[in-house]
Amino acid sequence: MSDRDAKKAEIIEALTSVNAPGTDRNVVDLGWVANVTHCDGAVRATIAMTIPGDAPRKDVQDRAATALADRLPWATEIMVDVNYEAPAAATPPPGGAAGGHAHGGPGAAHAGGPAGPEPLVGVTNVIAVASGKGGVGKSTVAVNLAAALARSGRSVGLLDADIYGPSIPTMLGQKTAQPVTVSGPGGKKMFAPVEAHGLKLMSMGFLVEEDRPVIWRGPMLHGALKQFFGDVAWGSLDFLIIDMPPGTGDVALTMAQTITLTGAIIVSTPQEVAMVDARKAVNMFEQTNIHLLGIVENMTGEIFGEGQVEQWAGENGHRFLGALPLVAGIRQSGDAGVPAALSGDDALAAPFSGLAEAVVTAAADRHSAAPPRKKISIQR
Asked: Is 204 helix (H, G, I), strand (E, B) or coil?
């Protein structure tokens, strides 16, 4: 038996541990496994179940993904597609059937159905900028970090994942911009990012009226984020910076399930009320298996104090990426739609240049030290 066939047999054997909901029969014996493929460590299984309903489908997806992750140590990416088919149309077991290749190597991210796109192909580093609470300047840090990276000659995208309170259009002077559609792989319609200040941008703020609130439950939020990853023609990027919403809600879980992050950055002001929530954010990323690249102390100075975040980071073994001052010029630049990192004022730009280089170093260290991460991407 060839190595290819042996690995295919391992995939099918792993799926025999997944019983159909409410039965003691597994999905292989029931003939539900429509196709399995693998290529360069990327595994895809397609299951055609004969039990209708979203809850049973999700149950099978979750358990199949977990079974494959646990039983295939060589797999670097796992994808499970589950569809409903009427009993008469159930697909027979794939015993000797030859499946197509799954495209993309380790670290590639997929979304959609069986012919889904590879939304982050060509993106070297994907970094989430997060905070435990609002009001600590997270979006200001994300915007200026992206701008400083671009100023240093790197290709950079900036994704506004704060669906409910998008800030990127205002802070980059693009409140009236609207993305256009372009033809992607296979003729798929995709959004072209808005481009400004040397950055590629995408935000919910480009898609809704400025004063109209986005009132969505979790599943709609999950779908929007997957579209931002999979339906935006990001192209080749050295860095994609993601401006996360504040808190520890659905967005981090969505990203943990669907894309491979280089790591996350936590932003906090040096006051205890903010640091309490920043600690929660650190714990959230640990629980979702997202690497912490480091911590930023923002708005240092007479009002909020200074040094407390750096001390906390040192005491807990977290990398400290730098301190950013609370000065009027940074706020004024954001209001004017020009990042302080690009303002031409060296006093304003220097802290963000230092932060950018610290992030570049942290990302490089992460790539050199970390083993390939096994990503579970569950398609709904």
From this structure: helix
Closest CA to 77 of 284, 380, 379: 379
First to last CA, the chain: 34
- Which residue type occupies 143? V
231-232-237-241 Cα dihedral, nearest 10 degrees: -100
Mean pLDDT of 347-361: 93
Match 């040094």 to its residue by tokens.
307
- 3-state SS assignment for residue 263: strand
Residue 179 CA: distances (Å) to CA of 157, 212, 233: 14, 18, 11
Strands 263-268 and 123-130 turn out to be parallel
The pTM of the full predicted model, rounded to 2 decimals, is 0.65
CATH, domain range 3-106: 3.30.300.130
User: Residues 237, 156: contact at Cβ < 8 Å?
Assistant: yes
For residue range 53-89, what is the model confidence (pLDDT) as tens digits?
A: 677 788 899 999 999 999 999 999 999 999 877 554 3
User: Which of these CATH numbers, 3.40.50.2000, 3.40.50.2300, 3.40.50.300, 3.40.920.10, describes 123-376?
Assistant: 3.40.50.300
